[in-house]
Inverse folding.
């Protein structure tokens, strides 16, 4: 292990950032707010002592470049923005661990390859509902017209708000050039779930990010009086939601994915009426595109069969879709090895939540992520936490992985 690396410094800086940009309810670094800008100014100050170039691209991403003998670059990335009342590690762990790795590499002299650190702009999408804002601009997946008129809870338009932060939507596509010369991307993040804690493991190597199918499903029956309508004569729209909810759980287990009904609405919504219209949302996720397609098709078929049996109608409306992004097998192997070398044991696992790594992977850049255990499996909450020894290990593993990637690039 490199003696120059100081993982405890990264932890102390995480605590410093928490004190600076949080309150009793948690982290308040929502993108495009004064607190977020304060966090970025703090980060720039930390970087000022290093021999790096710092600049913001057309999409608001903050880039840190430690030039090497080759302009071929290894990119370390994450995000410093948070959800409202968020946790102290989500996103910013990867940024500050990356800072510590750059410190170590810079202290050893000019590296063979260029090392970059990026703080992605508005990963969370907490203010305007469009997650992965900066990274999707770099990947070319951001539809400018679809976000231009998005508004926050105060009615402020995205286009006007981001302009105050130096982002001109008409020029945002120019950010796509930033991924040029990038030969590998690595990202460290807290797991945000219970798997590693349940297995008593510190860290896991991430195989990729789930693809997502997200739909609204509307069942239509006939509203009727709850007392005067015999059971055999009812066309209860809520029965469609109830039965499909149970069916999609079996579909998820069958295919090894996850399915969630997060919203249910019933009309007319009074205690004395049979439900005439019932609406539900369905969120399906899987790492395999074929399995995700099968889950979607089976859910649709189940809904039609249920509707026929219940003498009701069903209609589907797509909310959002994204393909799975499997990570690079060589980088997964290197991540796994780095974890084993530092922690003794590792676990390969998919990522249910989306991350900026998915957008980098979309560009064709070899990509991998590291997960570190989350206590209680809780994130996006002020009680979000990770054991100190696991945080130390995560910085060490990221450092070890970057070295492995440099050696790998030297051979390919």
């Amino acid at each position: 292990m490199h003696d120059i690396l100081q993982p405890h410094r990264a932890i102390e800086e995480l605590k410093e950032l928490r004190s600076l940009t949080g309150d009793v309810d948690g982290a308040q670094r929502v993108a495009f707010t004064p607190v977020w800008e304060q966090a970025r100014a703090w980060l720039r100050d930390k970087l000022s002592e290093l021999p790096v170039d710092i600049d913001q691209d057309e999409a608001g991403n903050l880039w840190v470049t430690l030039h090497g003998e080759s302009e071929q670059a290894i990119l370390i990335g994450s995000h410093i923005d948070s959800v409202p009342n968020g946790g102290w590690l989500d996103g910013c762990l990867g940024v500050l661990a990356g800072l510590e790795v750059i410190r170590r590499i810079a202290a050893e002299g000019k590296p063979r390859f260029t090392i970059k650190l990026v703080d992605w702009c508005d990963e969370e999408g907490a203010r305007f509902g469009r997650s992965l804002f900066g990274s999707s601009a770099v990947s070319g997946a951001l539809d400018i017209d679809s976000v231009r008129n998005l508004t926050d809870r105060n009615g402020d338009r995205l286009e006007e708000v981001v302009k105050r932060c130096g982002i001109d939507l008409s020029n945002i596509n120019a950010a796509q050039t930033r991924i040029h010369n990038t030969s590998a991307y690595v990202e460290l993040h807290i797991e945000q779930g219970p798997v590693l804690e349940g297995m008593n493991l510190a860290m896991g190597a991430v195989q990729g990010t789930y693809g997502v199918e997200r739909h609204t499903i509307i069942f239509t029956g006939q509203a009727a009086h709850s007392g005067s309508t015999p059971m055999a004569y009812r066309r209860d729209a809520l029965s469609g939601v109830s039965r499909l909810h149970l069916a999609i759980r079996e579909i998820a287990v069958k295919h090894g994915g996850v399915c969630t009904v997060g919203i249910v609405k019933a009309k007319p919504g009074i205690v004395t009426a049979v439900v005439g219209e019932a609406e539900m949302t369905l969120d399906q996720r899987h790492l395999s595109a074929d399995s995700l397609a099968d889950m979607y098709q089976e859910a649709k078929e189940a809904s039609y069969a249920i509707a026929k049996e219940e003498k009701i109608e069903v209609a589907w409306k797509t909310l959002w879709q994204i393909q799975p992004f499997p990570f690079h097998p060589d980088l997964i192997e290197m991540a796994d090895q780095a974890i084993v070398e530092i922690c003794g044991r590792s676990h390969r696992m998919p990522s249910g939540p989306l991350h900026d790594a998915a957008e980098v992977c979309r560009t064709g850049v070899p990509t991998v992520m590291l997960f570190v255990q989350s206590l209680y499996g809780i994130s996006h909450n002020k009680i979000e936490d990770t054991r100190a020894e696991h945080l130390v290990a995560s910085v060490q593993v990221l450092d070890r992985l970057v070295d492995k990637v440099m050696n790998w690039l030297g051979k390919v």
